[in-house]
Fold:
Amino acid sequence: MPDKIVLDSNVIVAIFFREDGVSEVAEKIVEKYKHYYTLDFAIVEITNVAWKKVMFEKEPIEIIEDGLRKCIEFVTSVCEVINSVELYGVAFKIAIEKNISAYDSLFAALSMKYNAPLATADRKLHEKVDNGILVRQKRATFR
Structure:
């Protein structure tokens, strides 16, 4: 069994908010690993996704609140949450070099720090990192 993996926010969201072709793959990836890393601001990103689901997709607030609570419990009790301040210098260089957002580059830097694959549902990010797993397909794509 592989040891560790970095989960970006969209993978965590996919586990608790059903998304065809993504949720199933995200769950299978998580089942394969023993240690999970994510960033402190994943909570902000996850909360923002929940807000969008209520405001724009008109999902029932009660269902979204339940999914949000489960996401946050997963992050705070299952994942090792790393403070982004530890990675900003490396992340900034990655963002410039790879032409990706600072948010994405922080996840890439976390992947590098722990020498662990980065699981993401973001195709652009997957294409820019060296050690990524794309969960946007029926089968995970490993690099």
Remarks:
- The chain has one domain: 4-142.
- The first strand starts at residue 4 and ends at 7.
- The chain is about 55% helix and 15% strand.
- The first helix runs from residue 9 to 16.
